Structures are given as structure tokens and as C-alpha cells.
Amino acid sequence: MDRIDCLRAFVRALEGGSFSAAAKELGIGQPAISKRIAMLESEFGTQLFSRTTRTLKPTAEAHRIYDLARQILDSFDMARSSVEQAAPRPTGTLRIGVPSSFGRRYVMPVIAEYVRNYPEVRVDIRFSERFVNLVEEGIELALRIGNLEASTLVARRLGTVQRHLVATPTYLHGRPLPRTPDDLSSHQCIVYSRMSPAQQWAFESEHGRHVASINGPIHVDDADAMQEATMQHLGIAILPEWNAAEGLRSGELEHVLPEYTIAALPLHAVYPETQWMSLRARSFLDLLVDRAEHFAPAPSHTRTAGAGG
């Protein structure tokens, strides 16, 4: 039994969350997986998994060597393909992180296309609005909306996300329409808790930048939930293009403060800085770049608050 087999068992066990999942994927028995992991632990002189009757938890040492192990396997598979005179094909598990609402609408069609193109790859998708730690969670690539903080991650700009200040006609009926951002202080606003500062909204106009303090009955950390709260007439919200578009077209939503604009947010693909990016991650990134124009559709025709019709 060679070290490549041991590394492959280790990577599959960590990605699949169990020895049985690794055994099923590799087409061998679970005792063989256990033996290979034990040989690797002996080779490295450290425990790689904490095992109980119900759970398999990678140790800190396992997380440290995981990325390097994947690079070794990818290099080995590419070398084998070159000897076989065949173009290398992506294999293994591609673990990606995507924002929940955005991912459902725009990333899932790209993933479907990717899986059809590369059936040898298993895609493990983590939906979350939070910025996850890619290295700790074994994520090869993630999409992030918003300004990036300084980090060791490599970032590839894909586009921007337009945003709209909206409310339903039902909510606005009988209330004084906001004329300036300062007027929002007398309105119920739906707060997106992941923005910082969450209770300040910034606008631009021909007169410069305006920052308004807002408050409201509900704070949420998910764009779809924010859209639903708006459609339930709970207040005014800043919705991303994909959440606002249909309602603005149908008249179920109206554009508030149309003379003021809200800055678009950058959209990036980010991935750990490594010497060798796996072929599966590289091919998926290439597909994202090719399809990036679909992530930023043309802004919807908006209905202005107070307009007739």
C-alpha cells in the first residue's frame, strides 16, 4: 500500500465526514480505510481524527495538512493523465461557499452546468451569509458580496450587485413619503444585520453623500427573509437586485427616494493562497468568470413611490 492511497483515504474521509463514506467512494471496505488512516498517522506521528461511535472529527493537524494533501493528489492525477496521453480531468470533491440567497438564484445554474461537464467531481455547496474561514472548513473557493477585509485570500472580481430602496404600496399608503434620507428616521426600516454599521444607510445624490440613521421592527441576516418582510408590509428595505426586480416590475414594490442612489456592492470569488490550485477549483473559477455577466443583470424598470398606475 503506497502513501498516495493513504492520502486519498484521508482526504475522502475528511471531505465525506466518515470512514464509511470514504470507503463507498473509493470502492473498498471500511477496515481498509481505517488501516490507511492509521498508516498515515504513524507516518506523520500525530492523530488525524478523533473517533467515537457516532462522530468523526478531524484534528487541528488534519486541517493543516489537508490542503497540501489535496495538492499532492491533484498533481499525481495530472501526472498520471499526462503519461496516459489524455487531457487531465477534474476529480474529487469541490467544496465551495456561496451566499444563501444569491447562490440559489445565480450559482446553482452554474454548478449544474459544471457537474454536467465534469461528472467525476462531487460538489459540496455550503450556503451561508457569513464569511466562513475557508481553510478551517476545507473550502476551496467562495463567493463574497461586499467589500473585502485584508486577508491572505486571493480575490477575483466578478462584478457588482445593484441595490434598491423599496417598500410596498400598502406600507407607504397613509404615511408621509420620504423626501430625503433623514426622513427615514420616522419610518419602519428592515435592517440587514450583516451590514456594518447595520443601522446606518448611506446614499449618494447630486448634493453629495448622505448617511441616515434607521430603525425598525425586524433585523435579519438573509436577503430572502428581508424580501419577505418587505412584502409583508413591515417597512422599507434595501434589497439586492434579484430580490427587488420582480416586485418592481409588477408594482408590488415601489422605489423609495429615487433621486438618491445606493452604492453597488462588489462580487468576488476568493480562494486560499496556495502554490497549486486544484484543477477542479480552477475549472469552476473559469466557468464562474465566463458566466459572470449573468450575475449582474440590467437594473429593473422601477416604479417610483407616489407614482400613479
Structure, explained:
With 309 residues, this protein is an alpha/beta fold. The chain is built from nine helices and 14 strands. It has helices at 3-16, 19-26, 30-44, 60-83, 100-117, 169-172, 223-231, 241-250, 279-290, and strands at residues 49-51, 56-58, 92-98, 121-127, 141-145, 154-161, 163-167, 190-192, 200-205, 208-213, 218-220, 237-240, 254-255, 265-271. A five-stranded mixed beta sheet has the order 4-3-5-14-6, covered by helices on one side. Helix 1 crosses helix 3 (30-44) and helix 2 crosses helix 3. It is elongated, with a radius of gyration of 24 Å. The termini are far apart. The mean pLDDT is 86. This is LysR family transcriptional regulator. Keywords: DNA-binding, Transcription, Transcription regulation. Belongs to the LysR transcriptional regulatory family.
Highlighted features:
alpha/beta, five-stranded mixed sheet, three-stranded antiparallel sheet, 9 helices, 14 strands, 37% helix, 22% strand, elongated
Please summarize what this structure is.
The chain has 309 residues and is of the alpha/beta class.
- Assign an overall shape: elongated
Order of secondary-structure elements: HHHEEHEHEEEEHEEEEHEHEEH
Order of strands side by side in the largest beta sheet? 4-3-5-14-6
Average pLDDT level: 86
Largest sheet: 5 strands, mixed
Number of helices: 9
Low-confidence segments, ≥5 residues, pLDDT <50?
Answer: none
What Rg do the Cα atoms give?
24 Å
Category by helix and strand content? alpha/beta
Distance between the termini: 75 Å
Strand content: 15-25%
- Residue share in helix: 25-40%
